[in-house]
Amino acid sequence: MGKKEEVKFQLNNKIEVLWEDGNYKSVIQDITNNSIGINIPVCGGKYLPLRKGEWIEAICFSKNSIYKFNTVVLGRKIDGMLIIMLAKPKKFTRIQRRNHVRIPVLLNITCGALKLNKDLNEIDDNQYEFFQAYSLDLSGGGMKIASDKKISLGDILLITLPLGKELLAIKGKVVRGYKDVDSKKNIYGVCFFDIEQGVRENIIQFIFRIMRERRRKGVRGE
């Protein structure tokens, strides 16, 4: 159920329209007392030409949280570009704090381990010990990985993370670890740091795309 709470829309907030064939990205371009205006949502170069009277489900990305809501298309207007006007929703579902949305996902990754006693300001690639691993889960703030490699709490990792067609290079710190008795793998919790906001946005959007795909497949399987 939607939870009533105040959500202050702001210009340039990112919006994603959840459609049956994917998440269509847009940006808030206009705000009035009763409506918000967005540019035409796009997904992989494909535009979503929303029409007056259509109901949509959407996600709004605010600074610290993510909100999901339903609303109706009020119409269109031209203001230097085509803007789609949506009724300002009165009910929202707060999903989670953005960085804490976590999903189980298996991705093959490459890690470079830098020992804790190294100076981060005086390092190069030769000082990393590179090894292969795979992810067990992922969030905007960190991930859980599994590997045969033994590393220590506090070690710094340079992680090459494949997200779709992109390869992201992310710094992380090992904050916990244990040996899995079944797989015999070393399991580590990694917290990201010094991560650019754009990179974090890419991770969060990847997470929501996977969540959307899994929900859709789940419905089809029922």
UniProtKB/TrEMBL annotation:
Gene3D superfamilies: predicted glycosyltransferase like domains (2.40.10.220)
InterPro entries in UniProt: PilZ_domain, T3SS_YcgR_PilZN
Start and end residues of each PilZ domain: 96-209
Example of a GO MF term: cyclic-di-GMP binding
UniProt keyword list: Cell projection, Cilium, Flagellum
Positions of the Type III secretion system flagellar brake protein YcgR PilZN domain: 11-89
Keyword DNA damage: no
Keyword Repeat: no
Protein name (Swiss-Prot/TrEMBL): Flagellar brake protein YcgR
Organism phylogeny: Bacteria, Bacillati, Bacillota, Clostridia, Eubacteriales
Gene that encodes it: ycgR
